[in-house]
Amino acid sequence: MWIARLGLALMVVASPSIVASQAGSLTELVPIPAGPFTMGSASGPDDERPEHRIEVPAFAIERTPVTNRQFAEFLNANPSLTANGRRLYDPDDNDARIHKKGPVWVADAGAEQYPVVEPSWYGAREYCRWAGRRLPTEAEWEKAARGTDGRRYPWGNAPPDRTRAHYNGGWQEFVPAGSLRGGASPYGILDMAGNGWEWTSSAYRPYPYNPQDGRENAGADVERVTRGGGQDSNANQITTTYRGRGLSREPGGGHHNIGFRCAR
Ligand SMILES: [Ca+2]
Ligand SMILES: [Ca+2]
């Protein structure tokens, strides 16, 4: 039923994935019902095993990744670029697509709707706090991406192509967030395969996933799980279960292929 309601809402707002809010232009949240889902993979890399069923309470997640334009709004509200001594963003990196024009942070022309890259894990967390939201846990992210039937990709088990996922691209090559509708997950979530990795709240620890074992309130500077694959990932790295292997999970730095989305 929420799809029908959403269809109505989309006709009212100017942009399909953006709604106005007091914190700026935040991405629409999509509700994910409570219930079990299959997490991990019996056939994937070691760190995806064992495949296991877990319960996830109801939550909501942003339909699309946070964009450069949205993250620029956050930087303008938090101009010090740090929070509690942690760097939030790497504007001096060649791969950053938000720069200062006079006193104002502005997304580069043409990159406004691309998923933001170069926020540190702390920057991603602080953006979500500023928005009245939080980072999704690794389990929430995976359920939003694959639903309850254990599928390999958000759209099913068919191999990816460029109508469904932005992958196998160049180092800095993105497509606008939410533009590949054929890649929607069972809940209608977009860009869960490719077009930038995404930080989650979870510390990178072995399965089975257990939110009570400390991985959701780990101390500073531990590796964090990234999900979904980036613009420059291969087909095996954009599955719903892949945990950012071979990728820096260092939370204090920004990376050319890691962004995020928020949950609530
Ligand atoms: Ca993504
Ligand atoms: Ca960097």
List the helices and strands and how they pair.
Elements lengths: L1 H11 L5 E4 L2 E4 L1 E4 L2 E5 L12 E5 L2 E4 L5 H10 L4 E2 L2 E2 L10 E4 L2 E4 L13 H10 L7 H9 L50 E7 L20 E4 L30 E2 L5
Parallel strand pairs: 11-13
Antiparallel strand pairs: 1-2, 3-6, 4-5, 7-8, 9-10, 11-12
One calcium ion binds next to loops.
CATH topology: paralog of FGE (formylglycine-generating enzyme)
**CATH architecture descriptor text:** Alpha-Beta Complex
Query: Which bin fits the share of residues in helices?
Result: 10-25%
CATH superfamily: paralog of FGE (formylglycine-generating enzyme)
Task: Please provide the count of β strands.
Answer: 13
- Walk across the major sheet and give the strand order: 12-11-13
> How far is it from the N-terminal to the C-terminal residue, by CA?
20 Å
Oligomer: single chain
Morphology: globular
Report mean pLDDT, rounded to a whole number: 91
Largest sheet entry: 3 strands, mixed
Distinct helical segment count: 4
Molecules bound to protein: calcium ion
| Backbone structural class | alpha+beta
| Total domain units | 1
- Low-confidence runs (pLDDT<50, min 5 residues)? 1-23
Strand content: 15-25%
CATH C-level: Alpha Beta
Radius of gyration: 17 Å
**Run of helices and strands:** HEEEEEEHEEEEHHEEE
In a few lines, what is going on in this structure?
This protein is of the alpha+beta class. It is built from four helices and 13 strands.
